[in-house]
């Protein structure tokens, strides 16, 4: 569907500023005549069709979701339509709502899990790569249940698409994955690589990040999910997260807060046999400790907690690797990419059937934990 281009809109406004005081602006487009898309949701519908939900920003509100007036009001409107593809659906929306569609401010695309399981993702998002308005930095999500429900909020003056984007980009926890953009998804699909995107779940207008959706490179379809705990293991493998906490294996809560995390996937090839070692180095602090007696100023106690956290990290990584290799049967951690970089010739011979080979590849872990800060509570014996 042809829409108002980003270039036409922005240049038109510039021309208008320069000319409106003199003769008027021939290319002027009233803001009330443009539907600014904040986000989109795509769901499976009956008879093989899809339902698209476009979230428009209501012009009377500010871009950050704050009302420009003194009264609270809904900051968005969701426009829904059904069809066989996104192009005809876009035209159908013009029959029910005035104004052209402008997608340069679109922050997110959410795909329902039912649709993602049965439809090739490359076909499903083809329009987004061809549309000159929609940016490659738009974030991609998969929803648990209906994608349209993630674009709802009971809070006034909140634009759900913007809020989801802001939470995802902050990446404040090891239990959320690094944001995945449209352009990154395109790269994965063109190389037939398996990959993950953040999953969303919604209940009563409250949407949260909830694990990750796993796509198989060959089919480009959703094949399963990582729980939040498994996402934590994935982040420890990739090193993509820089903050979060890990509970020590103690009866009373003891939490280690990550302040630095470096991970490396090292491929080894011996007599044609492939193996990997995941090396993890992390430093952090004791954020909370309910265990008594425990004096972290004593070196023996400190080493004991470090050893415990190390074992918990190893356990978390092992659990996620088991999910990848034995349950899902795909490399969603970038192991193949490291093999490609370090051993390009070997990679050329295995890449066509890499997911299948990955299932039986030996993987070991080496974890080093350093507690560099344990707060002001404790005492040191003289």
UniProtKB/TrEMBL annotation:
Domain Spore germination protein N-terminal per the UniProt entry, residue ranges: 29-200
Lineage of the species this protein comes from: Bacteria, Bacillati, Bacillota, Bacilli, Bacillales
Bilayer topology annotation: Lipid-anchor
Similarity section: Belongs to the GerABKC lipoprotein family.
Record field: transmembrane: 9-29
Gene3D superfamilies: Nutrient germinant receptor protein C, domain 1, Nutrient germinant receptor protein C, domain 3
Domain Spore germination GerAC-like C-terminal: 210-375
Tagged with keyword Transmembrane helix: yes
Keywords associated with the record: Germination, Lipoprotein, Membrane, Palmitate, Signal, Transmembrane, Transmembrane helix
Source organism per UniProt: Fictibacillus barbaricus
Subcellular localization: Membrane
Record-linked Pfam families: Spore_GerAC, Spore_GerAC_N
Location, primary (coarse class): membrane
Protein name per UniProt: Ger(X)C family spore germination protein
InterPro entries attached to this UniProt entry: GerAC_N, Spore_GerAC-like, Spore_GerAC-like_C, Spore_GerAC_C_sf
Database matches in PANTHER family: SPORE GERMINATION PROTEIN B3
């Amino acid at each position: 569907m042809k829409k108002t281009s980003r270039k036409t809109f922005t240049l038109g406004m510039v021309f208008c500023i320069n000319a409106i005081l003199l003769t008027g602006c021939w290319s002027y487009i009233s803001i009330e005549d443009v539907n600014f898309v904040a986000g989109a949701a795509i769901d499976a519908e009956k008879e093989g069709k899809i339902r698209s939900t476009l979230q428009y920003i209501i012009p009377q509100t500010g871009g950050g979701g704050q009302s420009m007036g003194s009264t609270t009001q809904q900051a968005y409107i969701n426009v829904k339509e059904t069809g066989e593809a996104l192009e005809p659906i876009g035209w159908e929306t013009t029959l029910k709502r005035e104004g052209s569609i402008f997608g340069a401010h679109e922050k997110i695309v959410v795909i329902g899990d039912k649709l993602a399981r049965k439809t090739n993702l490359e076909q499903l998002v083809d329009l987004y790569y061809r549309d000159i308005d929609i940016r490659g930095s738009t974030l991609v999500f998969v929803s648990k249940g209906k994608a349209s429900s993630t674009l709802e909020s009971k809070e006034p003056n909140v634009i759900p698409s913007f809020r989801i984007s802001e939470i995802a980009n902050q990446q404040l926890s090891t239990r959320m994955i690094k944001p995945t953009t449209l352009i990154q998804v395109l790269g994965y699909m063109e190389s037939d690589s398996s990959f993950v995107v953040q999953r969303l779940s919604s209940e009563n207008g409250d949407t949260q990040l909830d694990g990750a959706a796993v796509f198989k490179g060959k089919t480009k379809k959703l094949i399963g999910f990582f729980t939040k705990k498994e996402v934590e293991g994935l982040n420890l493998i990739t090193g993509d997260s820089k903050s979060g906490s890990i509970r020590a294996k103690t009866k009373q809560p003891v939490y280690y807060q990550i302040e630095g995390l470096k991970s490396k996937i090292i491929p080894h090839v011996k007599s044609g046999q492939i193996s990997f070692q995941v090396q993890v180095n992390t430093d952090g602090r004791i954020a909370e400790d309910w265990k008594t007696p425990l004096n972290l100023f004593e070196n023996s106690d400190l080493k004991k907690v470090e050893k415990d956290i190390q074992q918990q990290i190893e356990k978390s990584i092992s659990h996620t690797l088991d999910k990848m290799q034995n349950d899902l049967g795909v490399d969603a951690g970038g192991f193949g990419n490291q093999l490609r970089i370090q051993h390009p010739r070997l990679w050329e011979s295995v890449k066509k059937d890499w997911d299948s080979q990955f299932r039986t590849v030996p993987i070991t872990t080496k974890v080093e934990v350093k507690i560099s800060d344990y707060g002001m509570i404790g005492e040191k014996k003289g």
